[in-house]
Amino acid sequence: MSQYKTKVLGTGMCVPERVVTNVDLEKTIETNDQWIYERTGIRERRICKTIGGEFPSDLAYSATLQALEAANMQPNDIDMILFASVTPDMKLPNTASILQTKLGIENQCACLDIAAACSGFVYGTNMAHAMIQTGMAKTVLVVGSEMLSQEIDWTDRRICILFGDGCGVALYGRSEDNSAILATCLGADGTGKEFFQQPVGGAVTPLTKEHILNREHFMQMKGTEMFKVATRTLAKNAKKVIADAGMSLSDVDWVIPHQANYRIIETTAKLLGIPMDQVVVNIDKYGNTSAATVPMAFHEAVADGRIKRGQIVLFDAFGAGLTHGATLLRY
Ligand code: UT7
């Protein structure tokens, strides 16, 4: 079997223009900027327009053009699209194939959507690595793009303050230099399904008028339960990939954690003994954008020069499912 190394060729991100601050939310629900900031680290989030085309595939289109430019490649160089999202453009067809058309790709590249919630981008990254490593694909686009604003009850202060819309992408390909994905891990614990779910609208409970009138069709989360499992799992997976790569925590230059809550990120960093100035945090600007948080934070830190070629970077994510995963790479 072929054994190619996998490299990050380019990154990109795109967020909607509309900013909704905590102070804006004070006008519609019983909350305040201080509570939200102290409990979550969030100051504001971006929200998509529902009229005029600002849907997950549109955000992904703009972000992908940036990644292609960074990689000096053309859309037809992509031979697989993995689109991680819990808020796809529509049920059918998958959003990866919608993006393929928007990009003008004519090579009939494989298109797959990944439903792994907040861990979706890390799932996509590790799957892209497996495809590239074995020679089954040469250049894989991994997208995390979400429009969570559509799935949130904006009258429920326990949940609506947390989430936002956005997209981040990474383009992966064969490495001929020092850059490489060094270790991966993926997992899930299905027994925690009721901690974060959206049961209405699927095959088991099709959406009815009553569900809408009773506001039962939105995402439901048990925040405290999620919080506890998140910190434990993030720290465990980080240690696993570092050990699997034959490295130690002091070798890691940058941690890119899923941005669900600043306190989760801080607790995980403490458990790992990694100083916060090596952890990329942007939750203050975007809130929790599910599958998009890791690639957006990664892109920002690459674009502003914090992350440099040759440095060791750790992706670490956790979400509904309860899915989880980590990637250790030399950028
Ligand atoms: O992406 C992966 C999934 N997401 C996560 O893993 C998120 C994990 N969980 C969390 O981030 C936190 O649990 C939350 C931010 C959701 C909640 O923080 P908390 O410190 O666990 O607060 P709490 O739910 O225990 O609520 C404390 C109090 C309650 O009042 P009482 O019962 O103590 O009187 C809430 O009613 O704060 C109240 N509260 C609010 N007050 C102002 C809840 N939401 C709000 C709000 N504004 N938005």
Produce a short descriptive summary.
The chain has 331 residues and is of the alpha/beta class.
Description of the structure:
This protein has eleven helices and 13 strands. The longest helix has 22 residues, at 223-244. Helix 3 (56-71) crosses helix 4 and helix 8 runs parallel beside helix 9. It folds into two domains: 6-177, Thiolase/Chalcone synthase (Peroxisomal Thiolase, Chain A, domain 1, 3-Layer(aba) Sandwich), CATH 3.40.47; 181-330, 3-Layer(aba) Sandwich (Peroxisomal Thiolase, Chain A, domain 1), CATH 3.40.47.10. The model has no long low-confidence stretch (mean pLDDT 97). The strands form four sheets. Strands 1-7-6-4-5 form a five-stranded mixed beta sheet, with helices on both faces. A four-stranded mixed beta sheet has the order 8-13-12-11, sandwiched between helices. Strands 2-3 form a two-stranded antiparallel sheet. By secondary structure, it is an alpha/beta fold. It binds oxa(dethia)-CoA (UT7). Oxa(dethia)-CoA (UT7) is lined by residues 31, 35-36, 39-40, 118, 157-158, 161, 196, 223-224, 226-227, 230, 260-261, 288, 319. Oxa(dethia)-CoA is lined by residues 31, 35-36, 39-40, 118, 157-158, 161, 196, 223-224, 226-227, 230, 260-261, 288, 319.
